Amino acid sequence: MKFRTQFAAATAVTLLLVSACGKPADKAATPTETAAKAAGGDTIASGLGDATKFSAAAKAVGLDATLGGPGPYTVLVPTDAAFGKLPAGAVDTLMKPDSRARLTGILSYHILPGTMLAADIAKAIDGGGGKAEIATMGGGNLTATKDGDKIVFTDAAGTKATVTAADEKRSNGVVHMVDSVLMPARK
Amino acid sequence: MTKFLLAAGVAALAVSAPALAGPGGGHGGGHGGDQHAQNAGEHGGGGDKHGGGMKQEMRAEHGRMAMRENADHGRMKGDRVRMASRHDGGRSASRMNDVVRMRDLANDGDRRGYQSGYGLDRRSLGLVDGCPPGLAAKHNGCLPPGQAKKLVGVALPSAYARSMLSGPYSNWYRDDQRYQYRMGDDYIYRVDRSNNLVNALIPYVSRDYGYYPVGQMYPSDFNYYNVPNQYQSYYPDGGQYDYRYGNNAIYSLDPKTQAIQSIVALLAGDLGVGQQLPQNYGVYNVPLQYRDRYADSATDMYRYNDGYIYRADPTSRLITAVISALG
């Protein structure tokens, strides 16, 4: 019931924030009640916690609705420190309205279909001769390898992101925290 | 596990028998999300996949389809899987004991081999180089959106009449009493049964396009209620937002301005019955609540995509069945 109250409140706020000229609200659309029920009460969106930059970026492009929806998805969440490793000004540029398409592509590159636990990924790596190609919702692939017991994802440009906290299970998927921001190939 | 083959005719009769018939194929495909994910039909498919730069070879299947009923109901009890005969286009489908009729293509000797692009072999439709005569093939299909839009409101071209949906689309959009869906030239055409006119245009998945950014107006060419079946109960029109599928996602729109407000679901469109499981789906990704029933084994492997769990043969990697995993 608490969730429903929050849902209703958020919905009202969203309505107020949607301008007449069609610009998106500052707060992304909340899912329908049916979708919220299917997503469960402990969603990826609600559990981003300290990953404030990823959370803000997701909200900026409306992907918080996906991360609060039924899913399930596996989300590689870069820590705030990971965003800090990007070139100076990069995050600010990506957060501008003109960069929404690019930012959506970057964030969706961190979202994988279904629920992939660390053990699932490790098993595929072992079965694949030391690496596993993984489809992302952004369209490109990531390559997963192991560094000792840790899983490492490599993007199209060769940037590596190591899982620093694995298997944070949510009601609509699972989160793995990573220490770098991965970048899809430019389209 | 008991398995047996059904001849296509027998299967068609079986699935269309009144006692076994599902809920009429639902009423969706139109407005209001009154069709539920449980109506998952399935068809073979073929496709040229852009994702990850990886071209996937997919198979079409025609004519005599060997079908196998997986009678291991105990393993799948409680899930909802549908099997539909393809050749009548009528989506006659059945649900048996909450499950579980799966098409098995592994032993289908009448498949016509590989093709590119979801759907039937375009040459089999009388097309030239994949396009109707006189039209040069474009990067994104034969018809630019402006031309394709002109098909809305007119009778479906005869070349598309038998072009049944395949790949993931056969589950996303199913014929019902109100609409038929056909595909061609990178679009899905929704045909109103009452007058046989195309009344909606739906774009194929294209992982090359990228997502529409929030704030952008949803493209008018595709602005119909087009949410795939498995998500319709979650995202119906008529409420606070409109919902539209396009460019690999479902978007919420401001009902008045049609500006995109958020992305409520991402869709990959990567898997479909009849195609081979892509190499980039090597990681087991079945939702946790289904893992006790759909665990990889020496004889079966399972992968999740866009609201469905797909079963594939570990050796051939051919996807042989689809299971609803939403709702």
Q: Can you give a write-up of this model?
A:
- The complex is a heterodimer of chains A (187) and B (327).
- Chain A is α+β, with helices and mostly antiparallel strands and 187 residues long.
- Chain A has eight helices and seven strands.
- Chain A has a seven-stranded mixed beta sheet with strand order 2-1-7-6-5-4-3.
- In chain A, a hairpin with a 5-residue loop joins strand 5 (150-154) and strand 6.
- The radius of gyration of chain A is 17 Å and the shape is globular.
- Chain B is mostly beta strands and 327 residues long.
- Chain B has a three-stranded antiparallel beta sheet, with no helix packed on it. Chain B has a three-stranded antiparallel beta sheet with strand order 10-11-12, with no helix packed on it. Chain B has a three-stranded antiparallel beta sheet with strand order 13-14-15, with no helix packed on it.
- In chain B, a hairpin with a 2-residue loop joins strand 7 (179-184) and strand 8.
- The model of chain B is unreliable at 1-141 (pLDDT under 50).
- Chains A and B meet through helix 1, helix 2, helix 4, helix 7 and strand 2 of A and strand 12 and strand 13 of B.
